[in-house]
Amino acid sequence: MRITIQELENHKGEDLTVQGFVDNIRDLQYVQFVILKDETGKVQMTVEKNEENQALVEIISNLTLESTVLVEGTLLDSPKVKLRGMELLPKKIEVTSTAPLELPIDIKNKDAALRETRLDYRLLDLRRDENNLLFRAQTLILNAMRNYWFDHGFIEINSPKICAQAAESGAEVFHLDYFGTPACLSQSPQFYKQMAMAANFGKVFEIAPAFRAENSHTSYHATEIQMIDAEISWITSCSDVMDMEEDWLRYVFKTLKEKMGDEIQEKMGIEISDATPKFPRIPLLEAKEIIKEKYGFVGERKNDLERKEEELICKYVKEKYNSDFVFITKWPFEARPFYHMKDSEGYSDSYDLLFKGLEITTGAQREHRRDILEQQMIEKELDPKDFAFYLDFFKYGCPPHGGFGFGLARLMMQIFEIDNIREATFIYRGPTRLNP
């Protein structure tokens, strides 16, 4: 039975079978060292060059890096071995696949190839140790998110990704022919989250792809993204949504820090953010004033934050409140979708959550009264007839509700201090990339 490399600590002195990739080879005068790796770790295999091991020596002499092998042998406790204080003495080596002598990219040296070249060979790029750690951490993060929601009575939904109507701007959807009927790929599960509220699901979440036909080449946009969405009923304002998201993220970051924080610090030099401090809540206009007064920067966009402004307000919050998170509240209604509720001052009752200088969430209380929804559609120069199926969700009563949408790759970028969303995505899709 195969034993993963991570499990070897419990099998010293035993005969066993290990399978893995060839990570490194040192062929010396009297001995050969081979570092094997699998998805859980690395171990050293040692072969002395003698008559008894002649067949094994010949196999290793012809091995290439990144080939795969099956090894049967004895695992010895060897304190002098720097790699985990153990070594595998093989009795049999079977080469299960052979990689070419020359690889198209250098796996050991990320900077030896351009990013786009590495994306062309993403299969090999993903074999780098830091990528293995990145996506193991992402798995833990997603599991923690689900655990929190499960423990707090949320229902997981799976909304359709082929839709008749865009949830946001119709100019940013991928159009398709659906058996002769115009359709599009879903930008957001927004309408269906609200349908779940009207269906008395109470609290829901979804983790699923969303598609944005934005011809954007920035370091933080993609055309296919993994969205994390939540919606809750019986709220009184978007403050209830912020409270839920803050508590949820506090749990997620606590879990990540406890279970993988030391490993991430050791291997990547990154300290996981402490989400314990209360997330400050700053109105948009106040944030702009702070940025102007403290840093002398004035953005061109009145109703939004520019990237520089996001970075500066996060810098301010880190210095003043020791928080990597900040909610920006009270957005002008003209800058928000028609389904956001207006507060008593005419602002959108919504927020953006910024994390370490980048917006990762938009959340809001939704307008649940059908007549006001229709008025707000008209105000946004939309025809309510085009949204008849959506308006029907509110025809038979609907509780006050709100929620948020959350970009997974942006979160991973900020946690791991990655400067481009392409590096934080398993397989990236953008305006000029459809392969691999």
Q: How would you sum up this structure, described in words?
A:
This protein has 436 residues and is α+β, with helices and mostly antiparallel strands. It has two domains: 5-97, Nucleic acid-binding proteins (OB fold (Dihydrolipoamide Acetyltransferase, E2P)), CATH 2.40.50.140; 129-424, BirA Bifunctional Protein, domain 2. The chain has helices at 54-61, 115-120, 122-125, 129-151, 190-198, 238-268, 284-295, 307-321, 370-379, 388-391, 408-415; strands spanning 15-27, 31-38, 41-48, 68-77, 86-97, 155-156, 162-163, 175-178, 181-185, 203-211, 224-233, 281-283, 325-332, 347-355, 358-365, 401-407. The strands form three sheets. It has an eight-stranded mixed beta sheet, with helices on both faces. It has a five-stranded antiparallel beta sheet with strand order 3-2-1-4-5. A three-stranded antiparallel beta sheet has the order 7-9-8, with no helix packed on it.
Strand order of the largest sheet: 6-10-11-16-15-14-13-12
The CATH topology assignment of the largest domain is BirA Bifunctional Protein, domain 2
What is the CATH superfamily label of the largest domain? Bira Bifunctional Protein, Domain 2
Mean model confidence by pLDDT = 96
CATH architecture descriptor text of the largest domain: 2-Layer Sandwich
The CATH first-level class of the largest domain comes to Alpha Beta
Q: What is the count of distinct domains?
A: 2
β content, as a range?
25-35%
Give the fraction of residues assigned to helices. 25-40%
Number of helices: 11
Low-confidence sequence ranges: none
How many strands, what sense, and barrel or not for the largest sheet?
Answer: 8 strands, mixed
Helices and strands, in order, run as EEEHEEHHHEEEEHEEHEHHEEEHHEH
Backbone structural class: alpha+beta
Q: N- to C-terminal separation?
A: 34 Å
